[in-house]
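Schema walk-through. Below, the input block comes first and the output block second. Nothing else is stored per chain. Lengths vary across the set, and this one has 154 residues.
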Amino acid sequence: MEIKSVLFICMGNICRSPSAEAVFRHKAKHQFVDVNIDSAGTLGAHKGEKPDPRSQKAGVNRGYDFSGIKARKVSVDDFAKFSLILAMDNDNLKNLLKIAPDEYKYKVKLFLEYGDKYPETEVPDPYYGGSRGFEFVLDLIEDASDGLLAEITK
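--- output ---
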């Protein structure tokens, strides 16, 4: 399967998935990989909001740019539009599979399937934790982003 576009999904689209969008956009750009990148949430509670300031702070400190990223809810149209739809955890994976049209369910996966440095299978939600949680989220996202880019460019 040729991967031309990737959609990252978490629950509110203010911590994990916008971080994944920013990290993956940065890494793809620096490897000259042309891929459409976006993020969304399975819930629409934060629609139109910028990413959580703690996510932005952790990401900006590592050189990532969150410009133009605003929370939105995933739509049924996204399943046709994107080559891959990557959930941050099993709960969001289940929620995506409930709304995905049958012909597009194969596009929905866990993001950390592409990582290989950590035993985690899910990106934990850092929202209610301390700053170290946001750093660990970035560690996991960077690893999985490298694996995904290797898959795209092979």
